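Listing S7. Sequence submitted for prediction.
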Amino acid sequence: MDTQVLLIIMAVFTAVAAIALLIQAAVMFGIYKASRAMQEKVETLTPKIHAVADNSLTAIQESRVKIAEITAKTSQILDSASRQLAIAENLFTDFSGRARSQLDRAELVLDDAMTRVQQTVGLVHTGILRPIREINGVAAGIRAAIQYFARGARPNPDRATADEEMFI
């Protein structure tokens, strides 16, 4: 290759490199301008951001205080509810024990009453109804004897026929 051609190739590549550096410098200047514009916008927003941050911090601190109050009150309510529940449980246990003992007593009284009623019914049967049945039996015998003696020695033909028909 010839020196002349080599110098031309080097000049072309140097020119391309120079153009690339100029383009790169223009891009860097554009980035610089854009960052300056962004910085100006951020600087105008900075006081607003600080105000929002301060308001947020104040709101968070107030919320912490209110949350602490709510937590304390909730804790008190839960403690009170657990005490009331314990009292209610004790009352229920006491009530169920008393009710159970009253039911046992009522069962004993009912069993005793049923036993006494059965004894009384037995005594009525043996002491009153048996003698009444015996008196009724004696009275029926006396009635039959009176009827037999009252009708005489001859039986009535209708009666005799009825008696015979019973045995046929």
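Caption to Listing S7: primary sequence and predicted structure tokens for the chain studied. Residues 17 and 96 are 102 Å apart (CA to CA). The helical segments are 3-151, 157-167.
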